[in-house]
Amino acid sequence: MKKEVENVKETKFIHAFIPLVFLVCSLTYTIRYTNADPHIPIMISGMIAACIAMFSLKYKWDYILEGILNTIKSSMEAAIILLIIGMVVGSWIISGVVPTMIFYGLKIISPGIFLPAALILSLIVALATGSSWSTAATVGIALMGVGTGLGIPPQITAGAIISGAYMGDKLSPLSDTTNLAPAMAGSNLFDHIRAMLATTIPSFIITLILFCIIGSRYAGSDIDTAALNSILGTLETQFNITPILFIVPIITITLVVKKIPAIPGLFCGSLIGGIAAIVFQKTSLSDFITVLQKGYVSNSGNSVVDELLTRGGMNSMMWTVSLIICALFFGGIMERAGMLSAIANKILSFAKSTGSLILATIFTAIAANALAAEQYLSIVITGRIFKDAYAKRNLHPVTLSRVLEDSGTLSSPLLPWNSCGAYMIAALGIAPWIYVPYCFLNIINPIISAIYGYTGFTIRYLNGEKEKKFHLKKFVVTILNIFNK
C-alpha cells in the first residue's frame, strides 16, 4: 500500500454527506439569489471535502492532489473538443454555413412540425456519428437559430435537440459511452444495444408525442411575417447564401461517421469553413483567424440576427472549460477519498430486491454525475460498485449495462456543471437549468428503467429465472427511504 494511504480511516457516509450538502446549499443560494456563476461554490465545496479527507480521514495532500490531477486529465480531451467547437461555431458563421442553414430552415420548416423534426434530425445525426456533442455543434446550432426565427422559446428547442442527440448517442455502436457501459458490466456491445431498445423506444415515443403536442400550440399561432422576412432579408444582405455551403457540415459529419477522431475531425470542419469563408464571403485570412479566437460579432442592425450570430471562438468556451475543471477538482477529491463509494454503498444498502437494486443503480449514477461532473466517471464508478451485486442476484450483465446508460449517460446533460451539461449550454447558447424540463427523453428513460426493475419486464437473468411481479408500494417506499435516511 502506498505511504499516502497508510493509517487512513474508513470513509463513512457522513464524511461524504457534509461536502455534498454544502455543495447543494451553496449552489442553490448562488444561482437563485445572487445570479452568480457556480464556479466558486464548487471550488469551496472541493476544499471542504479536501479538509475532511486530510484532517478527519488522514489522507496526505499529495495523494489527494494525484487524484485531482488524474480526474482532470481524464477530461482534457473534452476540454480540447470544447475549444475546437468554439472555433467551428465561429468558422461556420463567418463562412455563411450557419446563416444558410437558418435561412433555408426558416423557409422550409413550419412551427407546427419544427420540434418533432428537430428531435428526429438530432437523433439521426447522433446515431450516425455516435456523438451527442458533434450533433449539438453541427445541426444543433442551426436548429436553435431556426427555432428562434419561428418564435419557439430556445429552451424548448434545446430540449428537443438534447433528447434526440442523447437517444442517438445512446444507441449508436460508434458512441464511446455505448461501448464503455457493456465493458464495465461485462456484456456484449450489440446485446447491450438490443437491451436498451426496450427502455429507449417507449421513452422516445412519449417524448415525440410531447413535442408534437407542444409544437401544435405554435402551429396555431400567427407567424410575424414581417419579422421573419426581416430576418431572411438581413441574412441575404450580410452573407452570400447558397446551398453549396451545405457541403461543409456534410463533410464534417462524414468525417465523424468514418470514425475520424473528434478532435482532428472537428478541426478539419473549422478549416473547411475557413475555405468557404474566403471563397464565398470574401473573408480575409486575418479576419478568419480573429473569429476563430474571439468569435463572430454581428452588426447587422437586426437584433434577432445579431443575437443569433454573435457567437463562437475559443474565448467563448473558457467559461465552460473553467467550470468543468472546478467540478472535476471537487469530483476528484470525492472519488480519491472514497466519498463517492461511501454514498453509493449507502444507497446500495437499500437494495433488497431486483427493483430496488436497479433503482439504487440509477440514483448512484445520477449522484456520480452530479459529484464527479463527468459521465464517463459516472458509468465507471457505478459499474464498478454494482457489478458484483448484480452477479449475486444472478442478473445478466446487459441488465446492468442498460441501467448505466439509462441513468449515467442520460442524466449527464441535465447538470450544468457536468461536462456534458456545460457543453450543451455553451454549444447551444442557452442559460443553465431552463432547458432541463424539456429534455423529456433524458427524464423519462430513467423512470421507465426503474419501473421495469420492479415489474421484471425485460429484466434478463443468467439462468432464465422468471421475472417478479410489480409491487407499487415497495417501489414508493424504497424511494422515500433513500431520501429520508
Labels describing this entry:
485 residues; 23 helices; mainly alpha
What would you say this structure looks like, in words?
By secondary structure, the protein is an all-alpha fold. Helix content is 75%, strand content 0%. It has 23 helices and no strands. The two termini are 34 Å apart.
Mean pLDDT: 86
The number of helical elements comes to 23
* Rg (CA only): 23 Å
Report low-confidence residues grouped into runs of 5 or more: none
Tally of strands: 0
Largest sheet: none
SSE ordering: HHHHHHHHHHHHHHHHHHHHHHH
Shape: globular
Distance between the termini: 34 Å
Strand content: under 5%
Write the layout of secondary structure elements.
Blueprint: H1 13-34, H2 39-56, H3 61-74, H4 76-94, H5 97-108, H6 111-129, H7 132-149, H8 154-171, H9 176-185, H10 189-219, H11 225-238, H12 247-257, H13 262-280, H14 285-294, H15 303-309, H16 318-336, H17 339-348, H18 354-372, H19 375-392, H20 397-411, H21 419-428, H22 440-455, H23 472-484
Helix pairs in contact: 1-2, 1-17, 2-16, 3-16, 4-13, 4-14, 5-7, 5-11, 6-7, 6-8, 6-10, 7-8, 7-21, 8-10, 9-19, 9-20, 10-20, 10-22, 12-13, 16-21, 17-18, 17-19, 18-19, 18-20, 18-22, 19-20, 20-22
